Task: inverse folding
């Protein structure tokens, strides 16, 4: 059984920063491509960022490129999302997602991923 658990969400003022973490447990010996998605109230879930299992390639949504950074520490089975220069429109529930693969690939679509966390709330006050 694979579990993804997010942490690090909270309330922050516009212009501030937060770092989200996503810890993987279960099949930790497997290689996972990982992604972050978010969903704001009344809106569809949207892609935020993704990273290959090795961490050598990353992908970002246009809305966060230059402000957010995805990274990973495979020794700790953890993926991070550093969020800087936060805006009120970044307010959402952020979820991490994973897919077991050793190929140097990532996905933008939610359906590409097999495992999901429960999410962590990020609220940016203006």
Result:
């Amino acid at each position: 059984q694979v579990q993804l658990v997010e942490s690090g969400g909270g309330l922050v003022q516009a212009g501030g920063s937060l770092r989200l973490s996503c810890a993987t447990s279960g099949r930790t010996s497997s290689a996972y491509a990982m992604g972050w998605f978010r969903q704001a109230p009344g809106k569809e879930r949207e892609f935020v960022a993704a990273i290959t299992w090795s961490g050598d390639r990353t992908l970002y949504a246009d809305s966060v490129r230059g402000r957010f950074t995805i990274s990973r520490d495979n020794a700790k089975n953890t993926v991070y999302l550093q969020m800087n220069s936060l805006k009120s429109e970044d307010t959402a529930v952020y979820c991490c997602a994973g897919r077991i693969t050793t190929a140097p690939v990532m996905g933008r679509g939610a359906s590409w991923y097999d495992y999901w966390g429960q999410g962590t709330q990020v609220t940016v006050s203006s």
Summary: The chain has a mean pLDDT of 95. The longest strand covers residues 92-100.
